[in-house]
Amino acid sequence: MLALIQRVTEASVRIDGETVGAIGPGLLALVGVEPGDGPAQVERMARRLLGYRVFADAEGRMNLGLSATGGGLLLVSQFTLAADTASGMRPGFSTAAPPAQAEPLFNDLLRTCRQLHAGGVETGRFGAHMVISLTNDGPVTFLLRS
Predict the structure, then answer these.
(1) Using an 8 Å Cβ cutoff, are 92 and 80 in contact?
(2) What CATH fold (topology level) applies to the domain 2-145?
(3) What are the pLDDT digits (tens) for 2-17?
(4) Catalytic residue ranges
């Protein structure tokens, strides 16, 4: 499981012109599921998303995780994140989990994050064409692997 996280001052996801998820300060996480991912990867990724220290403490150092700040989390499924880009000029998608496997795992991640984080967890819609808007804060962007 992969997550491209971005520290944001705000982020939202729209489908067909309707905003379906939005947060203020917090993290936008684009999530890709890979073949072989399962409950262990979901649990590890949830803990990393909520605890990864990318927010400033009183001294301005990145020492605080999302749970410590109470910020929002916007989780967006993105199978292209798991694409094979090692060669050629076109991505291959055999390295991404098929939708029948990926959707339940993404939903488990969403459910786990909602159980563990009181700061609010929003999402888009699995498999939909989504328009993501964000204001990256920093910029601060990291690729997490479970």
Answers:
(1) no
(2) D-tyrosyl-trna(Tyr) Deacylase; Chain: A; (3.50.80)
(3) 999 999 999 999 999 9
(4) 78-80
